[in-house]
TrEMBL record:
The lineage of its organism: Bacteria, Pseudomonadati, Bacteroidota, Flavobacteriia, Flavobacteriales. Its EC number is 3.6.1.55. Belongs to the Nudix hydrolase family. This is 8-oxo-dGTP diphosphatase. Pfam families: NUDIX.
Length: 131
């Protein structure tokens, strides 16, 4: 089974978290799902380097990456995903979506209302539980 390793950012501004929606995709289980911005780690990059690069590419934002929050291993029908999520902060809500089709800034109590990619559910659950 194909293995994919990604980094993802839980970006806080004040008490809100940035949630972004993927575009339509041939894989129905990720198509138009909400996720945390990020992407694949390239050769020679550290996880934090990869996340900084992805956030610039996807959102045109410089984030302060604070700490590893949770690593999730999720088996999708077509690949096994390992996703490392990091707590990050930004100085303003001023972002530009280059790949995603919508954004929401939500408080912890609102996070569960979105249709998340399945691999993100353990991250959302831990965020909500930690309060
Ligand atoms: N960045 C990110 N990817 C996630 C999350 N949840 C989740 O299942 N994924 C999956 O992780 C995989 C890799 O993410 P990606 O953003 O690099 O995927 P991509 O296919 O657009 O990248 P590519 O164009 O380089 O192939 C995708 O299949 C994506 O659906 C998440 O919260 N953030």
């Amino acid at each position: 089974m194909k293995k994919v390793e990604v980094v993802a950012a839980i970006i806080y501004f004040e008490n809100k978290i940035l949630c972004v929606q993927r575009a339509k995709n041939k894989l129905p289980y990720i198509s138009e799902k909400f996720e945390f911005p990020g992407g694949k780690i390239e050769k020679g990059e550290t996880k934090k380097d990869a996340l900084k690069r992805e956030l610039l590419e996807e959102l045109n934002v410089e984030a302060n990456i604070k700490s590893l929050f949770l690593t999730v291993v999720h088996q999708y029908p077509d690949f096994e995903l390992t996703m490392h999520s990091f707590i990050c902060e930004v100085a303003s809500k001023d972002i530009t979506l280059h790949e995603h089709i919508s954004q929401e800034w939500l408080s912890l109590t609102e996070l569960r209302k979105l249709d998340w990619a399945a691999a993100d559910i353990p991250i959302v659950d831990k965020l909500v539980m930690n309060g």
